[in-house]
Amino acid sequence: MSDYFARQPRDYLAVATPGAGKTTFALSVAAELLGRRKVDRIIVVAPTEHLKLQWAEAAARAGVPLDPTYSAGKGRTSADFVGVAVTYAGVAVNPLAMRIRTERFKTLVILDEVHHAGDALSWGEGVREAFEPAARRLALTGTPFRSDVNPIPFVTYAPGDDGVPRSVADYTYGYAHALADHVVRPVLFLAYSGEMQWRTRAGDEVAATLGEPLTKDLTNQALRTALDPQGSWIPSVLAAADKRLTEVRRHVPDAGGLVIATDQDDARAYAKTLRQISGEAPTVVLSDDKGASKRISEFSAGDQRWMVAVRMVSEGVDVPRLAVGVFATTTSTPLFFAQAVGRFVRARTRGETASVFLPSVPTLLGFAAELERSRDHVLGRRVNDEGDLFSPEDALVAQAQATESETGADPGAAFEALGSQARFDHVLYDGAAFGHEGEVHVGSEEEMDFLGIPGLLEPDQMRALLHKRQSERRRTRGGSPAGAGADAGPTVGRPDAAEITAHEQLAVLRRELNGLVAAWHHRTGQPHGVTHAALRKECGGPAAAIANADQLRARIDRVRAWASERRSS
């Protein structure tokens, strides 16, 4: 806040990681400006109806009463209020009415999650027209901006080294900084793989392992199979997540969990499964339910174990007691992932750690590894595909206040999930991966080594405990530590070939190779497919999915050699 008042700008962009306190900062600025008589009125613009109410509640606690029931064209509000809270959609309906209100008073406009105001959206056009006369504009965001050739209203741009204009934040508070200040929690990502079987549109039956190198379509179909409520994968992962929540609640009694589902049908099915697992009915939140905001508020203030939601709890919704999450949705854009994980990172007490369960899919594991990386809005950058972090989020934004009655699947791609089995893959924490040798089945002691980690640990204690449990299990099983250069990827040792079947041995080697390739991608930016192709060229042999054990070992050794050469250079 000191930076803001030292500069006294008309426009100010604050970029802060989810959970870092953007709302508190903005309301502190608003209260100070009102006290100094720099402004007379406040307008808060939020993405959703629930966030509008959440802003009004937070503002009331800060002594800045806002009317969350105001709508453009309504005219005056009660003299009890010093401002209003509206949605971007509401502004777009009647921007002229909002402009008149803005002109009548010296107004501070707070634009929450300002990336929603991109000019390519009608919301952006309305925002520019409505708030151009504002005395002050404070823009907030905690997630990557949209990217196209259109600038976001009231955001400053400057050319980078390559001449391409990029957004310029007045103040940036990243995840790493917030973590060091104990403002946010560290995140323990627990990845689960397993065997999937499904039938394609052509009637072919396909079997594949979740997380192994597959085409984009096959990866998506494997993920959909894993998330099918009728299979065994999702009940197994929900049961594991509930065990983790139980452990966390030993130390944090009101800790809650959130399952993010793809659609309403899945959400209801997951809730039914969770009730059978935990013995307690979860809170189910659907955006077309008129009581959704009330349900979220009640869950936030209570001590229930689980909430199941579709998309509306992905951005800005503040439930500080959320500590365990299950990412069980096929919506897997970088923006959505960042928003979803942001629901679990708000710190309350030192030592709290967020635990997020993920399908072991390379894209999601990549997002998890890149959590601390921030990106500016780049104008004119070419978007290569929907997996690009800069990919436009128009469809996702349009769904933010829509219903989730559709399945989210492509109606033209007939698909039938036949069955699924889950197994524990590994844990990602603080840039490193931890796991056990061989197949780690759900419900096993090896899995509990990680699910049973205490709910309150300092980051260095967590790191030490992960290393200790992995090492102890390796010594118990008589395995050997991973080879030199293991810091380039998951620290999973290779088991003795005599202890496991050929199938298990190949699965372990493929997992190790995939982890190393993913780590090489995070270190160099080289796409996974390019790395696999380079390894095949240097070491010979077919694709990893059908390579033999010796060929896989050769590629693993080669990646480790690359990592060693890079460190020494």
Compact summary:
This protein has helices spanning 2-7, 22-35, 49-61, 88-93, 95-104, 122-131, 175-180, 216-226, 233-251, 264-278, 292-301, 334-341, 362-369, 394-399, 445-451, 459-477, 502-524, 528-539, 549-568, and strands at residues 11-16, 41-46, 66-67, 83-87, 107-111, 136-141, 157-159, 165-167, 171-173, 187-199, 205-210, 256-261, 283-285, 306-309, 322-328, 354-359, 416-429, 432-434, 440-441.
Q: What labels would you give this structure?
A:
569 residues; alpha/beta; ten-stranded mixed sheet; seven-stranded parallel sheet; 19 helices; 19 strands
Question: Mind explaining what this structure looks like?
Answer:
The protein has 569 residues and is of the alpha/beta class. The protein is built from 19 helices and 19 strands. The strands form three sheets. Strands 10, 11, 12, 13, 14, 15, 16, 17, 18 and 19 form a ten-stranded mixed beta sheet that branches. A seven-stranded parallel beta sheet has the order 3-4-2-5-6-1-9, sandwiched between helices. A hairpin with a 2-residue loop joins strand 17 and strand 18. Helix 9 crosses helix 10, helix 17 runs parallel beside helix 19 and helix 18 crosses helix 19. The chain is globular, with a radius of gyration of 25 Å. 50% of the residues are buried.
